[in-house]
Design a protein that fits this description.
alpha/beta; 221 residues; globular; Rossmann fold; two-stranded antiparallel sheet; seven-stranded mixed sheet
């Protein structure tokens, strides 16, 4: 029993219901995305002082000066990506690992890279604990993508670039989709959906967002 007299499982169920309601109210309506976000408990990816706020729709600090995005933004980015069951996805910016874990429920394989080795190690531990065997996480300079594994059906970038990075555009399959925040790090950025066609790229502006900047090179941790 909890302090308010409710059984532990009942409060967990209510918490999950509120979490999903918040996602829907902010525009996450794709049933596959909602199901994936119901399966993957955000609480596994938030540590320390902020653990009790894991189920609120807000970004939270994590190690290495980074953040875990608010769940509604994770849901909206995933929804825009329109991942299919046979897709191979590249994520640039592993962070806590939460976004990659969501993607793992929708795609055949997820490659995720981060410039901070510590974040990659910690995310790998969580993936292992949760039995998420279709995620490959590695420390790398994500601004250059993963040319050895390219091309990708879908690419998602969880840090803001001034423009969609050329190497990532080049690693997108014909018919593929990339979702990336674009803009200066000290101003409001815009979430952009890029679709590659035989003759070029289509760009669709989705919504204003705020992300940490995309930085070249490996981190010190």
């Amino acid at each position: 029993m909890t302090e308010d007299g409710l059984p532990d499982d009942e409060t967990a169920a209510e918490r999950k219901m509120r979490f999903l309601f918040a996602l829907r109210s902010r525009g996450v309506t794709d049933i596959r995305v909602l199901t994936a976000m119901e399966r993957i408990d955000r609480g596994h990816f938030v540590r320390g002082l902020f653990a009790e706020r894991a189920y609120e729709d807000m970004p939270l600090p994590i190690a290495c000066g980074q953040t875990i995005s608010q769940p509604s933004v994770v849901g909206l980015m995933t929804q825009a990506l329109n991942v299919q069951p046979r897709d191979t996805v590249l994520e640039v910016g592993t962070g806590s690992g939460y976004q990659a874990a969501i993607l793992s429920q929708l795609a055949r394989r997820v490659y995720t890279v981060d410039r901070h080795r510590r974040l990659v190690r910690e995310a790998q531990d969580v993936f292992r604990d949760l039995g998420l065997v279709n995620i490959v996480a590695m420390a790398a300079d994500g601004s250059f993508g993963l040319p050895d594994q390219a091309p990708f059906d879908r690419i998602i970038v969880t840090a803001a670039a001034e423009d969609p990075p050329g190497p990532l555009l080049a690693q997108l399959k014909i018919g593929g989709i990339m979702v990336v925040p674009v803009g200066q790090s000290d101003t409001v950025q815009h979430l952009i959906k890029v679709t590659r066609h035989e003759t070029g790229y289509d760009y669709e502006e989705l919504r204003p967002v705020r992300f940490v900047p995309l930085v070249e090179g490996l981190g010190t941790e």
